[in-house]
Design brief:
With about 280 residues, the chain is α/β, with parallel strands linked by helices. It has a single domain, classed as Spore Coat Polysaccharide Biosynthesis Protein SpsA, Chain A (Alpha-Beta Complex), CATH 3.90.550. The chain has 10 helices and 13 strands. The protein has helices at about 35-45, 60-65, 70-80, 90-95, 110-115, 120, 140-155, 215-220, 230-240, 260-275, and strands at about 5-10, 30, 35, 50-55, 100-105, 125-130, 135, 155-160, 170-180, 185-190, 200-210, 245-250, 250-255. The strands form 3 sheets. Strands 5-4-1-6-11-8-12-10-9 form a 9-stranded mixed β-sheet, with helices on both faces. A two-stranded antiparallel ribbon has the order 2-3. The protein has a two-stranded antiparallel sheet with strand order 7-13. A hairpin with a 2-residue loop joins strand 9 and strand 10 (about 185-190). The termini are far apart. Bound molecules: uridine 5'-triphosphate.
Length: about 280
């Protein structure tokens, strides 16, 4: 049985909603208090048993690579002080994971970003995390829940959640049949539908497990809205063959690609994970 060994992080987008800070800094390096979004994503993947991190970057994103590397000068500077502990988590990540990078030269959409990652993934099923969707869960993390489901279904899995009807225009939305609690067999999907046209209010969020045939499907799917290569259009073709599960995950998602969601996540983490608030 194929296991999930790699997680792809499309991180090449411009992050225009956070300008000016994203002018020279990747959105994925924005911190929730003191840890960047991308690190939360990597930790979620590690918790799911994945140790191969494949990151699709773009211009101005070098800070991502530096973050997952040792900074000898800094380590030397804080050696023997209480501050060493602050780097323990990231050091553990660097020691136990491998990181590979490729660049998306033109930002032609999420589908195109995932296709750019093919060279890092190869012919294996893989996970995808959009680090700007920050997820918290009691017990198993969201990706762990999905990996368990993959072991059972061996097909593509998209994380879904109910959103208010009037917000369907922000998401890919599924149409499907409920197989059991939280598990939907996806029949069809629509990218960013008007609320009146949306087939449901079940929106796809930034966690996927994809089978490798997705690359060929992306390559052969004509560009969608705004000339972008949408991942929804390619997954839709797997759905037509009954090969996509929609999973209503247990947990909470913050849309950290928006200023409001980012502030909510920051407050949530500060309240819940920082007992000594000094
Ligand atoms: P978004 O549309 O939310 O990100 O893409 P964005 O374009 O960076 O943000 P705004 O709208 O301008 O503020 C979702 C995810 O897909 C990645 C982004 O980095 C983000 O993680 N992405 C998107 C790419 O890697 N390449 C693309 O061409 C588009």
């Amino acid at each position: 049985m194929a296991t999930i060994e790699k997680c792809l992080f499309p991180a090449a987008g411009y992050g225009t909603r956070f300008l000016p800070v994203t002018k020279s800094m990747p959105k994925e390096m924005l911190p929730l208090v003191d840890k960047p979004l991308i690190q939360y994503g990597v930790e979620e993947a590690m918790a799911a048993g994945i140790h191969g991190m494949a990151i699709v970057t773009g211009r101005g994103k070098r800070a991502l690579e530096d973050h997952f590397d040792i900074n000898y000068e800094l380590e030397h500077q804080i050696a023997g002080t209480g501050k060493e502990e602050l780097l323990a988590e990231i050091r553990n990540i660097i020691e136990t994971c491998t990181f590979s990078y490729t660049r998306q030269v033109e930002m032609k959409g999420l589908g195109h970003a995932i296709l750019t990652g093919e060279t890092l993934i190869g012919e294996h099923p893989f996970a995808v995390i959009l680090a700007d969707d920050y997820c918290v869960a009691e017990g198993d993390g969201v990706l762990t829940q999905m990996v368990k489901l993959y072991e059972r279904y061996q097909c593509s899995i998209v994380a879904i959640e109910e959103v208010p009807r009037e917000e369907t225009f922000k998401y890919g939305v599924i149409d499907g049949d409920m197989e059991e609690d939280r598990i939907w067999r996806v029949k069809s999907m629509v990218e960013k539908p008007d609320p009146a046209d949306a087939p449901s209010n079940l929106a796809i969020i930034g966690r996927y497990i994809l089978t490798p045939d997705i690359f060929e499907l992306i390559r052969t799917t004509p560009p969608g809205k705004n000339g972008e290569m949408q991942i929804t259009d390619a997954i839709m073709r797997q759905a037509e063959q009954g090969r996509v599960i929609g999973y209503q995950f247990k947990g909470r998602r913050f849309d950290c690609g928006s200023v409001k969601g980012f502030m909510e996540a920051t407050n949530y983490n500060y309240e819940n994970f920082y007992p000594n608030k000094d």
